[in-house]
Amino acid sequence: MEPLSEKQIRSSFVNCTKGEAARLRLPLGFAELPWGELDFLGWVDPGAPLRAHLVLPGARGPLGISLRVPSVGRTSVLKSSLCQLCLTGHASSGVTLLAAPLAGAAGRQGNTVGIYVCADLACPLYVRGRRQAKLRTGQYEESLTLDERLARMTGNLDAFVARVTSR
Question: Model-level pTM?
Fold first, then answer.
């Protein structure tokens, strides 16, 4: 992913108001982000921990999605969970449900779509092996190449964005 400016990020959001985009806080360490290892930028807002954001490159420029983090932790009897974007297995606390208001009139009416993702939104780093999930049973082994895993993650993200934007 090419490095983005603060202005590019704030103007990219399709499912929140301009005021909400102006008030969001950029990720901690924004100046030191490993842009070359990111296929999308995802973070939990440091000033509003119940908000998260995704910004991904697009043909017409960056596209931002605002997400809500559940205010109450989900309870689960499962010992592990799987991210729906990168398919990284985590201890159950390492995956969280995020809800995105739909873009346009449907979102203003309160309609949302949800997805279970890595709680830290660091999917590109997990896929590349730069970050390790904490699982009691160890990591899952895959026979896919790195390029195939990155393509799968990007496809999963594109499908989610299509649901949010009704494309």
Answer: 0.88
